[in-house]
């Protein structure tokens, strides 16, 4: 569905403490993010607090659309799983636990009434939005690995997102066995912080602080990201070979440490004789919004 010249899509990206939202214009096969904001939400809060967070995001989106003299023709939501993307029912327990089994669609409709609401997994939305950048036009099988609180993955094959029966990513890697644990135990916020401690870090640091210290030359902090990049390489190498992936895009907030991650990741892939273009996403914060808007 292409929107008319005076209408737009409101895209939401539901995170742990904020909802990113953007007004997206779609016309002639092109998508343009014309405005962007963040509003607070407590994913660990009560039903009422979560409803309030969504209501605030929708109200802000309506205001942004009005500012640009646009009306909403659809609402697209990028959200992590487990989630029933067809019905809009949340199945999450690690986030938004208070609304487990409830319809996020109905929560949103308390504010929007008759505006259509559709949902997409956040990893899929990220890849769909990022891949619109012209730099990726020459690639046939792009994939994204999203490193944040958890570990996400998405892939496009033959021009289409690979999805499972519930419309989530067709390939999931966070629970894949790796070194006696799971991939997410090593490549995630907690994985990086645990590695920092294991390597001898004495002060409790956030991933952001470890990144900043590494950029300043701290050898221990640099080692944390080098080893994390190597872990990513070992985890994705079999997938790249099996699926014929020719472009791997790093997303998620931790991917902003790309200068520290990409070299060890690429060098690890070379030990498998893999030739794959690896890069940091150009639009880490906004790609899920533009991607989710492709639902309309």
Automatic annotation (TrEMBL):
Any Pfam family: ROK
Key words of the record: Kinase, Transferase
GO MF terms held by the record: kinase activity
Gene3D superfamilies: 3.30.420.40
Keyword Methyltransferase in record: no
Family membership noted in the UniProt record: Belongs to the ROK (NagC/XylR) family.
Native species: Sphaerochaeta pleomorpha (strain ATCC BAA-1885 / DSM 22778 / Grapes)
Protein name (record): Transcriptional regulator/sugar kinase
Annotated signal peptide: none
């Amino acid at each position: 569905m292409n929107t008319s010249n005076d209408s737009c899509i409101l895209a939401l990206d539901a995170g742990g403490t904020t909802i990113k939202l953007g007004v997206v214009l779609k016309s002639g096969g092109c998508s343009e993010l014309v405005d962007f904001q963040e509003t607070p939400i407590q994913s660990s809060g009560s039903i009422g607090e979560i409803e309030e967070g969504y209501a605030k995001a929708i109200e802000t989106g309506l205001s942004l659309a009005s500012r640009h003299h646009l009306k909403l023709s659809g609402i697209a939501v990028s959200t992590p799983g487990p989630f029933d993307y067809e019905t809009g029912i949340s199945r999450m327990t690690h986030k938004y636990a208070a609304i487990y089994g409830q319809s996020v669609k109905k929560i949103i409709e308390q504010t929007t009434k008759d505006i259509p609401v559709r949902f997409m997994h956040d990893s899929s939305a990220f890849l769909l939005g990022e891949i619109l950048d012209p730099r990726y036009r020459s690639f046939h099988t792009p994939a994204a690995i999203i490193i944040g609180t958890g570990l996400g993955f998405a892939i496009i094959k033959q021009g289409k997102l690979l999805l499972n029966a519930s419309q989530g990513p067709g390939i999931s890697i966070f629970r894949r066995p790796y070194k006696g644990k799971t991939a997410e135990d090593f490549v995630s916020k907690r994985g990086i912080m645990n590695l920092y401690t294991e390597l001898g870090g004495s002060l409790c640091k956030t991933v952001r602080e470890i990144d900043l210290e590494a950029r300043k030359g701290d050898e221990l902090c640099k080692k944390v990201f080098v080893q994390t990049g190597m872990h990513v390489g070992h985890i994705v190498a079999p997938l790249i070979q099996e699926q014929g992936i020719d472009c791997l895009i790093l997303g998620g907030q931790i991917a902003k440490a790309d200068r520290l991650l990409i070299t060890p990741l690429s060098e690890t892939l070379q030990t498998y004789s893999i030739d794959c273009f690896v890069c940091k996403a150009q639009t880490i914060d906004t790609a899920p919004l533009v991607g989710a808007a492709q639902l309309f």
